[in-house]
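Standup notes, structure subgroup. Blocker cleared on the iron/sulfur cluster input:
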Amino acid sequence: MNEPVQITRLSRSEFNAIAGDMSLRRKEMLFEPQLQIDRLTGLVSESVTSASKLPAPDCRRCGVCCDYAPRVPIENDESKRLNMYWDIVSDSEVDVIVDRVLSRDLASGRCVHLAGELAKDVTCTIYKERPRVCRAFEAGSDLCREYRRMYGLDRQLEPGEILLDRAKIKVRSVGVITNAHIRVETVSVSLSMLASDPQVTESLRSLRMIIEVYVDHDVENGYELHRYDPTLETWLENEFMGLTLTRAKRLIKSRSLQIVNE
Ligand code: SF4
Ligand code: SF4
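Run returned:
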């Protein structure tokens, strides 16, 4: 018999509060990151730090990326084959889903699909069905190494290594979307009901969604990618992560009924 699907709906602020709480609790248990986590890659081919040149560690005896990462995105097609996930909805409109992520265990903070003891013997209980983002994450990459240092599994970097690695990471700019935010805009239109009496009006309310993206961790300069009507189109923030602006516009054009912001 198929297992029942458990979809939990959380508003963005509820989700942020949970993620913030998990990260605070972790902070007390882990080493401080030595490099900027949000600028590190999970791909070995894009890794630049000296530690990423070492032989890859054994994932089956580690599991710390699955324990740590608070936001593991699921794409639309993937959610059809998963039986448990969180839908994140807009704070103001509970029917508008803006993102979808793997469920976390609220007590431990880890991915609900991670079984076993960290750093000893772990397994992913949905290994064959795991999302693309998990498949793409590579052992030995810059981000893997940083997580392992935070959990005390790899040695801490020396001050000289930190300076060198930070400089290498800074020049590594690849022009991809590293953050996306979908927000709601409410449009109200007043219609005059009677030509003879313009005072008699009805107010119509409709929603417009705005997709704003940030490239190469430049959090100061958001780029408005697209506006859409949520009754006609559906997008998730995670669909744009890792794309260049050109590829993101092409994706929107392929599915959108409305004009793409050129
Ligand atoms: S942190 Fe690295 S070694 Fe550990 S499970 Fe993740 S990818 Fe594998
Ligand atoms: S689905 Fe599996 S691989 Fe992905 S974070 Fe969870 S335990 Fe790790």
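Discussed briefly. The first strand starts at residue 6 and ends at 11.
Next: hand off to the docking folks.
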